[in-house]
Specification:
The protein is mainly α. The chain has a two-stranded antiparallel ribbon with strand order 1-2. It is built from 21 helices and two strands. A hairpin with a 5-residue loop joins strand 1 and strand 2 (10-12). The chain has a single domain (15-96, 118-479), classed as Hydantoin permease (Orthogonal Bundle). The mean pLDDT is 89. It has helices at 15-26, 29-41, 45-73, 77-96, 99-110, 118-151, 155-159, 163-169, 171-191, 194-220, 226-233, 242-255, 262-268, 276-306, 310-313, 319-330, 334-368, 372-392, 407-435, 437-445, 453-479, and strands at residues 2-4, 10-12. The chain binds 4-fluoro-L-phenylalanine. 4-fluoro-L-phenylalanine binds at residues 25-26, 28-31, 129, 254-255, 257, 260, 262, 352, 355-356, 359.
């Protein structure tokens, strides 16, 4: 998938290489675990519709911008922000005709480690994955634990009420499984076997799609499931609240790996002849397709097995872990299907976790000039500390509830609802006022007709920054209790 060029930086082998890598990073727990529980909680069909509209307009605009910025500069986020803002300063000075100042700015732009305010924009993007990876690994640990239980054949135990709660509140169990998942991720990075994992995941990914289709059909044909299908697919305005939009936007960032520097980095590996616009569309369709399939797998089952009661729909992060075991218990060969399901989900989670860890480590290597070993060690430490807090938040640290949330929910809220809107806002402003929409368009035009250029420009300049700010301010006001949404 990755080839080495004459220079140090690798490149993707082409359109397919880029799509596979980006989809590998995009498709993960966000689609299978997070999307269904948010859709169940925030209105079903109306959440799905809001999500799709946001992905096609905002997601598309931000993905194109990030990828083009990465490809233009050949750098990861902090370096890309620095290089483009320096280039802009140089251009401004040249326009003013000050030859001396231009020379000075150019020298500064190329100087190793030179700093400027825009670098902070790059850092916001780079820090987000460092805060996501720890709690991502906690959920990865839950998946590993369930896989283990199905291997042992504990099909009916896993489906019992209260099983999940007693697992996550048992300090050693939940923490131990988190550490196992985190160690797997760090080992892959430390041993440099990401390519091997990616090759395996090329087989796993189609496997996941096929199994999700089978499971969705099974779930939708259970008695009582029809109400769930309707709830998930038919938008009902009476279920709409401002939180539907807030949650859908956060989910869109999370699921498409937007506003966390990853697409800038992936863009930097993209060849100039790869069609940015088509690639982005393919990733959005694929990623949303898996999310919808997961919704069809889980939400009808909530109705079939738990009567679709509001409590069952609103249970949040536990939804997949409570619902899927009930499905497996009800089917013949449930143990085998359960093993298959959790293996595939574990792989999807692992490829995403690896790409998160890679982004974190390469930021340290590129920006702080750390060795690979030091960068990986620090990433591992951050994961160990923050992940332990999230994991223990359901057990010994149960009483610690920042902003009234569990520690895991707090990190999820902090990154998805607060930091990502800020990072997305910064990207829009940077793209419009520093890089210039014209330059980004030129980059996209190198390999594509850019059919949606008009929409892209309007969305980037006017709608996205405004909307993202409104969302951000409303979630802050909500948390502070100033408004209720
Ligand atoms: N998009 C991934 C998911 O939906 O699970 C999460 C993620 C992975 C975000 C990798 C960012 C990233 F770099």
């Amino acid at each position: 998938m990755m080839e080495k060029t004459g220079s140090k930086r690798g490149v993707f082998s082409g359109h397919l290489g880029y799509i596979l890598a980006t989809a590998g990073s995009a498709v993960g727990l966000g689609n299978i675990w997070r999307f269904p529980y948010l859709a169940a909680k925030y209105g079903g069909g109306i959440f799905l519709l809001t999500y799709l509209v946001l992905a096609l307009f905002f997601g598309y605009t931000l993905m194109v911008s990030e990828t083009a910025i990465g490809r233009m500069t050949g750098k990861s986020p902090v370096g890309a922000f620095r290089a483009l803002s320096m280039a802009r300063r140089t251009a401004d000075l040249t326009a003013k005709g000050s030859a001396k100042a231009t020379a000075k700015a150019t020298a500064k732009a190329t100087a190793k480690g030179s700093k400027n305010g825009w670098q902070a924009g790059g850092w916001i993007n780079a820090i987000i994955p460092m805060l996501i990876l720890p709690y991502y690994s906690v959920i990865g640990g839950w998946v590993a634990k369930y896989l283990f239980e199905y291997i042992l054949g504990h099909v009916s135990e896993a489906a019992e009420d209260g099983y999940f709660t007693s697992f996550i509140s048992s300090p050693l169990g939940a923490w131990g499984w988190f550490m196992i998942f985190a160690l797997m991720t760090v080992l892959v990075i430390a041993l440099g076997v990401e390519n091997g994992v990616e090759r395996v995941s090329r087989i796993m990914m189609p496997g996941l799609v096929v199994l999700a289709v089978v499971m969705a059909v099974y779930s939708m044909t259970r008695p009582g499931a029809a109400a769930g299908i309707r709830y998930f697919l038919v938008p009902d305005l009476s279920h709409f609240s401002w939180m539907t939009v807030v949650a859908a936007l956060g989910q869109m960032f999370y699921s498409l790996s937007i506003a966390m520097g990853i697409l800038i980095t992936y863009g930097s590996y993209m060849k100039k002849d790869v069609n940015i616009e088509n690639s982005v569309h393919h990733v959005i369709f694929f990623d949303s397709g898996i999310a919808i399939l997961s919704g069809l797998m889980i939400i009808p089952a909530v109705f079939a097995f738990s009567g679709g009661k509001p409590d069952a729909l609103a249970q949040g992060p536990s939804l997949m872990f409570v619902t899927m075991p009930k499905i497996f218990e009800s089917m013949s060969g449930g143990r085998f299907v359960g093993i298959l399901f959790f293996v595939l989900v574990l792989f999807a989670a692992l490829t995403s976790a690896i790409s998160l860890a890679e982004t974190c480590a390469s930021t340290f290597e590129d920006e702080l000039k750390w060795s690979r070993k030091k960068a990986t060690t620090v990433v591992a430490l951050i994961v160990a500390v923050l992940g332990s807090l999230s994991s223990l938040g359901f057990g010994p640290l149960f009483g610690v509830t920042p902003l009234g949330m569990s520690i895991l929910d707090f990190f999820d809220f902090l990154t998805n609802s607060l930091m990502m809107p800020v990072a997305a806002f910064v990207i829009c402003i940077f793209a419009v006022y520093v890089v210039g929409v014209r330059k980004i368009s030129e980059e996209v035009h190198l390999s594509s007709r850019f059919r949606f250029e008009g929409m892209y420009r309007i969305c980037l300049k006017y709608i996205a920054p405004f909307f993202v700010m409104v969302i951000l301010l409303s979630s802050i006001a909500n948390v502070l209790g100033i408004i209720t949404i």
